Amino acid sequence: MTFVFSNDEGAEIECLGPLWVRRYDGLGLSRLRRITKSGPQQHGETLTAALWQGRVITMNLRFQATSEPELEALRDELYDIMNPSTTFYLDSRRASGDVRRLDVLFSDGLSGMRRANGLYYIQEDTVQLTCSSVFPYTAEWAEERYGPPAGADLAETHEVYYPGTWAAVPILCFYGPMTGPACQNLTTGDELAFLPGASVPAGEYWEVDLRYGNKTARDGDGVSVLEYLANPTDLATFAVDVSPEAPGGLNRLRASGSGCNGNSYTTIRYQVRWRGV
What is the CATH number of the domain that holds 228? Predict the structure, then answer.
């Protein structure tokens, strides 16, 4: 497995020389926190829930430059990417060619320890990273598009095979004109729907971002439209799911709405997520 560090400013370091990853830990399954309860006269405990703990990654790095100035420049480049106040990316490229990404934050290490009698322009160091999300994902977005409908009503169902091992939380976009827009996962029974009288105007769109840390519904100007969501609606649980909720990873996703024309359509965008790298 090979690794790439990068950030949103376009900086990138591929760890295939002169920076190498010699050892790593924390890229498999994260730790679980089990929640239990017990009653009077009960021997043992009853498991009520199991939650994934935060992921911590440790990497042993080797700098092997051709000169001391090159080593110094490489260290500065790595320090710039690992800004402790901003999230950056760790991409892990598997032998199959698949790439799985984690959003990470610098936590500890890179102290610059070096032996006085060490080899010139060669250095080893260790870095510890924490992850803002436990589950690695593919950087590319998958998209399902529904519509435009042949008539005034949108009612379209797609059977989507999802290859991940953890559910994907999507971003839904409804492009007007459309009244009462909704999406259903017919496999799991979850639905995200707006009130029957709520209308997306022609030439505009409403976006519902279900990702953790977001859970927003806004129009194209960024104004919240959460008040128009139907009650109940599965804002917290709507997902492109995995087995056993979606046996074999097959999800039947349906988009609907009324008052449409040839410019009306709905998109479901998501990134495939995995339990581990």
Answer: 2.60.120.860
Q: How many CB atoms lie under 10 A from the CB of residue 266? A: 28
Condensed to tens digits (0 to 9), the pLDDT of residues 63-108 reads 998 888 999 999 999 999 999 889 999 999 999 999 999 999 999 9
Positive or negative CA dihedral for 18, 22, 23, 29?
positive
Q: Is residue 277 assigned to a domain? A: no
Both 148 and 232 in one domain: the answer is: yes
Burial string for 215-251 (b: 16+ CB within 10 Å, else e) reads: ebbbbeeeeebeebbeeebbeebbbbbbeebbeebeb
Q: Which two tokens stand for residue 227?
A: 């008040």
Q: Are 107 and 165 within one domain?
A: no
On the question of a cis peptide bond just before residue 196, with omega within 30 degrees of 0, the verdict is no
DSSP string, 244-274: TTSGGGEEEEEEEEES--TT-EEEEEE--B-
- What letter does residue 21 receive in the DSSP assignment? E
Per-residue pLDDT of 20-58, as tens digits, reads 999 999 999 999 899 999 989 888 889 888 889 999 999
Q: Which residues contact 181 (CB under 8 A, 6 or more apart)?
A: 174, 193, 194, 198, 200, 206, 255, 256, 257, 266
Cα dihedral across residues 175, 177, 181, 187: positive or negative: negative
Tell me the pTM: 0.89
User: Residue 215 phi/psi, 5° resolution?
Assistant: 50, 55
Residues 21 and 65 in one domain: yes
CATH code, domain carrying 29: 2.40.30.200
Instruction: Provide the domain limits for residue 48.
Output: 2-131
Please indicate, yes or no, if residue 136 is contained in any of the structural domains: no
